[in-house]
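Quick check before the chapter quiz. The format below is the same one you will see on the exam, so make sure you can read both the input and the output lines.
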Amino acid sequence: MIRKAVFPAAGFGTRFLPATKASPKEMLPLVDMPLIQHGVEEAKMAGIRGMIIVTGRGKNVIEDHFDVAFELEMLLERKGNSDLLEMVRKVNKGVDFFYVRQNLPLGLGHAVLRSKDLVGDESFAVVLSDDVIDAKVPVLKQMIDACARYHADVALAIQRVPDEMVSKYGIIKGEEIGPGTYKVSDMVEKPSLEKAPSNLAIIGRYILPPSIFPVLAATRPGAAGEIQLTDAIRSLIENKRVIGYEFEGTRYDAGTKLGFQMANIAFAMKDPELASGLRAFLQKEKFT
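Here is the expected output.
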Protein backbone atom coordinates (compact mmCIF):
# COMPACT_ATOMS: atom_id res chain seq x y z
CA MET A 1 0.00 0.00 0.00
CA ILE A 2 1.32 3.44 -0.95
CA ARG A 3 0.51 6.03 1.73
CA LYS A 4 2.62 9.01 0.64
CA ALA A 5 3.22 10.97 -2.55
CA VAL A 6 6.01 13.46 -3.23
CA PHE A 7 5.34 16.53 -5.38
CA PRO A 8 8.52 18.33 -6.54
CA ALA A 9 7.52 22.01 -6.78
CA ALA A 10 10.67 24.08 -6.34
CA GLY A 11 11.38 24.95 -9.98
CA PHE A 12 11.30 28.48 -11.37
CA GLY A 13 8.85 27.79 -14.21
CA THR A 14 10.89 29.85 -16.66
CA ARG A 15 8.89 28.64 -19.68
CA PHE A 16 5.92 30.62 -18.39
CA LEU A 17 7.63 33.90 -17.62
CA PRO A 18 6.55 36.58 -16.90
CA ALA A 19 3.44 34.88 -15.42
CA THR A 20 5.61 32.80 -13.05
CA LYS A 21 7.72 35.71 -11.83
CA ALA A 22 5.45 36.10 -8.80
CA SER A 23 3.12 33.10 -9.08
CA PRO A 24 4.43 29.51 -9.02
CA LYS A 25 3.90 27.47 -12.17
CA GLU A 26 2.24 24.80 -10.02
CA MET A 27 -0.54 27.29 -9.23
CA LEU A 28 -1.39 28.07 -12.86
CA PRO A 29 -5.06 27.09 -13.28
CA LEU A 30 -6.53 24.47 -15.57
CA VAL A 31 -9.98 26.05 -15.82
CA ASP A 32 -10.47 26.63 -12.07
CA MET A 33 -8.04 24.19 -10.43
CA PRO A 34 -4.26 24.70 -10.03
CA LEU A 35 -1.96 22.24 -11.78
CA ILE A 36 -0.66 20.80 -8.53
CA GLN A 37 -4.15 20.18 -7.22
CA HIS A 38 -4.89 17.96 -10.21
CA GLY A 39 -1.97 15.77 -9.09
CA VAL A 40 -3.13 15.82 -5.46
CA GLU A 41 -6.65 14.78 -6.49
CA GLU A 42 -5.20 11.89 -8.51
CA ALA A 43 -3.15 10.72 -5.52
CA LYS A 44 -6.16 11.08 -3.24
CA MET A 45 -8.32 8.94 -5.56
CA ALA A 46 -5.55 6.31 -5.54
CA GLY A 47 -5.90 6.02 -1.75
CA ILE A 48 -2.87 8.13 -0.82
CA ARG A 49 -3.33 10.36 2.21
CA GLY A 50 0.11 11.91 2.87
CA MET A 51 1.07 14.66 0.40
CA ILE A 52 4.71 15.80 0.62
CA ILE A 53 5.40 18.96 -1.35
CA VAL A 54 9.00 19.96 -2.04
CA THR A 55 8.98 23.74 -2.32
CA GLY A 56 11.45 26.58 -2.73
CA ARG A 57 11.68 30.33 -2.53
CA GLY A 58 8.45 32.14 -3.45
CA LYS A 59 6.25 29.02 -3.14
CA ASN A 60 4.38 29.92 0.06
CA VAL A 61 1.19 30.39 -1.92
CA ILE A 62 1.10 26.59 -2.46
CA GLU A 63 0.99 26.08 1.31
CA ASP A 64 -1.72 28.73 1.60
CA HIS A 65 -3.79 27.03 -1.09
CA PHE A 66 -3.84 23.71 0.74
CA ASP A 67 -4.42 25.33 4.14
CA VAL A 68 -7.78 26.02 5.77
CA ALA A 69 -9.15 29.45 4.77
CA PHE A 70 -11.28 30.29 7.81
CA GLU A 71 -12.35 33.78 6.69
CA LEU A 72 -13.31 32.61 3.20
CA GLU A 73 -15.25 29.64 4.55
CA MET A 74 -17.11 31.85 7.03
CA LEU A 75 -17.98 34.30 4.27
CA LEU A 76 -19.29 31.59 1.95
CA GLU A 77 -21.24 29.97 4.78
CA ARG A 78 -22.77 33.30 5.76
CA LYS A 79 -23.82 33.95 2.17
CA GLY A 80 -25.25 30.45 1.79
CA ASN A 81 -22.90 29.49 -1.05
CA SER A 82 -22.86 25.82 -0.10
CA ASP A 83 -21.48 24.60 -3.45
CA LEU A 84 -18.51 26.95 -3.34
CA LEU A 85 -17.98 26.19 0.36
CA GLU A 86 -17.79 22.47 -0.37
CA MET A 87 -15.40 23.12 -3.26
CA VAL A 88 -13.07 25.12 -1.00
CA ARG A 89 -13.19 22.52 1.78
CA LYS A 90 -12.52 19.69 -0.66
CA VAL A 91 -9.03 21.08 -1.38
CA ASN A 92 -7.55 19.56 1.81
CA LYS A 93 -10.31 17.20 2.89
CA GLY A 94 -9.17 13.76 4.03
CA VAL A 95 -5.44 14.28 3.47
CA ASP A 96 -2.41 15.65 5.29
CA PHE A 97 0.14 18.01 3.76
CA PHE A 98 3.84 18.18 4.63
CA TYR A 99 6.44 20.57 3.26
CA VAL A 100 10.20 20.54 2.84
CA ARG A 101 12.42 23.07 1.05
CA GLN A 102 14.78 22.43 -1.83
CA ASN A 103 17.15 25.35 -1.38
CA LEU A 104 19.39 24.61 -4.37
CA PRO A 105 18.23 23.87 -7.96
CA LEU A 106 19.99 20.52 -8.23
CA GLY A 107 17.38 18.61 -10.20
CA LEU A 108 14.53 16.17 -9.78
CA GLY A 109 16.66 13.55 -8.03
CA HIS A 110 17.73 16.08 -5.42
CA ALA A 111 14.11 17.20 -4.91
CA VAL A 112 13.07 13.61 -4.21
CA LEU A 113 16.05 13.14 -1.88
CA ARG A 114 14.89 16.16 0.16
CA SER A 115 11.71 14.22 1.05
CA LYS A 116 13.65 11.35 2.70
CA ASP A 117 12.88 12.17 6.34
CA LEU A 118 9.19 12.70 5.62
CA VAL A 119 8.81 9.54 3.55
CA GLY A 120 10.61 7.29 6.02
CA ASP A 121 11.15 3.58 5.40
CA GLU A 122 8.31 2.83 3.01
CA SER A 123 7.55 2.85 -0.70
CA PHE A 124 6.06 6.05 -2.07
CA ALA A 125 4.83 7.79 -5.21
CA VAL A 126 6.30 10.77 -7.06
CA VAL A 127 4.00 13.04 -9.04
CA LEU A 128 5.17 15.72 -11.47
CA SER A 129 2.29 18.18 -11.72
CA ASP A 130 3.44 19.30 -15.19
CA ASP A 131 2.03 16.02 -16.47
CA VAL A 132 -1.75 16.23 -16.23
CA ILE A 133 -3.38 12.89 -17.03
CA ASP A 134 -7.11 12.56 -17.63
CA ALA A 135 -7.99 8.93 -16.85
CA LYS A 136 -11.06 7.01 -15.70
CA VAL A 137 -8.89 5.09 -13.24
CA PRO A 138 -6.23 7.32 -11.62
CA VAL A 139 -2.84 6.58 -13.14
CA LEU A 140 -1.27 6.11 -9.71
CA LYS A 141 -3.95 3.50 -8.91
CA GLN A 142 -3.16 1.73 -12.19
CA MET A 143 0.53 1.70 -11.28
CA ILE A 144 -0.02 0.50 -7.72
CA ASP A 145 -2.12 -2.37 -9.08
CA ALA A 146 0.58 -3.17 -11.67
CA CYS A 147 3.23 -3.33 -8.92
CA ALA A 148 1.13 -5.86 -7.04
CA ARG A 149 0.34 -7.87 -10.17
CA TYR A 150 3.97 -8.13 -11.33
CA HIS A 151 5.64 -8.08 -7.89
CA ALA A 152 7.56 -4.94 -8.82
CA ASP A 153 9.60 -2.73 -6.50
CA VAL A 154 9.63 0.22 -8.92
CA ALA A 155 7.03 1.33 -11.45
CA LEU A 156 7.47 4.00 -14.10
CA ALA A 157 4.61 5.49 -16.08
CA ILE A 158 5.57 5.28 -19.75
CA GLN A 159 4.15 6.46 -23.05
CA ARG A 160 5.19 6.05 -26.67
CA VAL A 161 6.41 9.32 -28.12
CA PRO A 162 7.17 10.40 -31.71
CA ASP A 163 10.77 10.01 -32.87
CA GLU A 164 11.36 13.76 -32.81
CA MET A 165 10.45 13.87 -29.10
CA VAL A 166 12.66 10.99 -27.91
CA SER A 167 15.58 13.28 -27.00
CA LYS A 168 13.39 15.20 -24.54
CA TYR A 169 12.66 12.25 -22.22
CA GLY A 170 14.12 9.44 -20.21
CA ILE A 171 13.72 6.35 -22.42
CA ILE A 172 13.47 2.74 -21.25
CA LYS A 173 14.78 -0.51 -22.66
CA GLY A 174 12.59 -3.42 -21.68
CA GLU A 175 10.90 -6.73 -22.39
CA GLU A 176 7.12 -6.84 -22.52
CA ILE A 177 5.86 -9.13 -19.74
CA GLY A 178 2.18 -8.28 -19.95
CA PRO A 179 -0.19 -5.98 -21.83
CA GLY A 180 1.52 -2.60 -21.89
CA THR A 181 3.91 -3.66 -19.11
CA TYR A 182 7.68 -3.97 -19.53
CA LYS A 183 10.42 -5.37 -17.34
CA VAL A 184 12.99 -2.59 -17.53
CA SER A 185 16.60 -3.62 -18.19
CA ASP A 186 18.04 -0.18 -18.86
CA MET A 187 17.13 3.49 -19.31
CA VAL A 188 18.78 6.51 -20.85
CA GLU A 189 18.18 10.17 -20.01
CA LYS A 190 17.39 12.27 -23.11
CA PRO A 191 19.23 10.17 -25.70
CA SER A 192 19.59 11.01 -29.36
CA LEU A 193 17.23 9.05 -31.58
CA GLU A 194 20.15 6.92 -32.80
CA LYS A 195 21.10 5.90 -29.25
CA ALA A 196 17.58 5.51 -27.86
CA PRO A 197 16.72 1.88 -26.96
CA SER A 198 13.01 2.47 -27.74
CA ASN A 199 10.43 5.23 -28.02
CA LEU A 200 8.92 4.42 -24.61
CA ALA A 201 9.31 7.60 -22.59
CA ILE A 202 9.11 7.97 -18.82
CA ILE A 203 6.23 10.27 -17.85
CA GLY A 204 5.86 12.10 -14.53
CA ARG A 205 4.56 9.30 -12.29
CA TYR A 206 6.77 6.93 -10.26
CA ILE A 207 6.40 4.29 -7.56
CA LEU A 208 9.70 4.02 -5.69
CA PRO A 209 11.12 2.03 -2.74
CA PRO A 210 12.89 3.71 0.20
CA SER A 211 16.16 2.19 -1.05
CA ILE A 212 16.20 4.94 -3.69
CA PHE A 213 17.36 7.47 -1.07
CA PRO A 214 20.90 6.17 -0.39
CA VAL A 215 21.33 5.71 -4.14
CA LEU A 216 20.28 9.31 -4.77
CA ALA A 217 22.66 10.50 -2.06
CA ALA A 218 25.51 8.74 -3.86
CA THR A 219 24.48 9.70 -7.40
CA ARG A 220 26.83 12.11 -9.12
CA PRO A 221 25.36 15.08 -11.00
CA GLY A 222 24.58 14.25 -14.62
CA ALA A 223 23.05 16.33 -17.39
CA ALA A 224 23.07 20.10 -16.66
CA GLY A 225 24.86 19.48 -13.36
CA GLU A 226 21.71 18.04 -11.79
CA ILE A 227 21.10 14.84 -9.84
CA GLN A 228 18.97 12.81 -12.21
CA LEU A 229 16.26 10.56 -10.78
CA THR A 230 16.61 8.38 -13.89
CA ASP A 231 20.28 7.67 -13.06
CA ALA A 232 19.36 6.55 -9.54
CA ILE A 233 16.53 4.29 -10.73
CA ARG A 234 18.90 2.80 -13.30
CA SER A 235 21.21 1.82 -10.43
CA LEU A 236 18.38 -0.17 -8.82
CA ILE A 237 17.68 -2.35 -11.86
CA GLU A 238 20.24 -5.03 -10.92
CA ASN A 239 18.72 -5.67 -7.47
CA LYS A 240 15.11 -4.52 -7.82
CA ARG A 241 12.29 -5.45 -10.18
CA VAL A 242 11.57 -2.34 -12.25
CA ILE A 243 8.59 -2.15 -14.58
CA GLY A 244 7.42 0.39 -17.11
CA TYR A 245 3.66 0.69 -17.36
CA GLU A 246 1.78 2.15 -20.36
CA PHE A 247 -1.06 3.84 -18.53
CA GLU A 248 -4.60 4.26 -19.82
CA GLY A 249 -5.56 7.92 -20.12
CA THR A 250 -4.83 11.11 -21.99
CA ARG A 251 -1.71 12.98 -20.93
CA TYR A 252 -1.13 16.70 -21.39
CA ASP A 253 2.34 18.19 -21.04
CA ALA A 254 1.24 21.26 -19.12
CA GLY A 255 4.88 22.20 -18.59
CA THR A 256 4.87 23.71 -22.08
CA LYS A 257 2.75 26.63 -23.25
CA LEU A 258 1.12 24.60 -26.01
CA GLY A 259 0.41 21.62 -23.79
CA PHE A 260 -0.98 23.89 -21.08
CA GLN A 261 -3.40 25.53 -23.53
CA MET A 262 -4.44 22.15 -24.92
CA ALA A 263 -5.14 20.89 -21.40
CA ASN A 264 -7.21 23.99 -20.61
CA ILE A 265 -9.34 23.51 -23.70
CA ALA A 266 -9.77 19.77 -23.08
CA PHE A 267 -10.83 20.24 -19.45
CA ALA A 268 -13.09 23.17 -20.31
CA MET A 269 -14.85 21.03 -22.92
CA LYS A 270 -15.62 18.49 -20.18
CA ASP A 271 -17.23 21.18 -17.99
CA PRO A 272 -21.02 21.31 -18.52
CA GLU A 273 -21.04 25.03 -17.75
CA LEU A 274 -18.36 25.85 -20.33
CA ALA A 275 -18.50 23.25 -23.11
CA SER A 276 -21.33 24.60 -25.28
CA GLY A 277 -20.21 28.23 -25.05
CA LEU A 278 -16.58 27.36 -25.77
CA ARG A 279 -17.55 25.16 -28.72
CA ALA A 280 -19.71 27.94 -30.17
CA PHE A 281 -16.87 30.43 -29.76
CA LEU A 282 -14.33 28.19 -31.45
CA GLN A 283 -16.67 27.55 -34.37
CA LYS A 284 -17.62 31.23 -34.72
CA GLU A 285 -13.98 32.31 -34.77
CA LYS A 286 -13.21 29.47 -37.19
CA PHE A 287 -10.67 27.88 -34.86
CA THR A 288 -12.17 24.49 -35.68
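If your answer matched, good. The radius of gyration is 19 Å.
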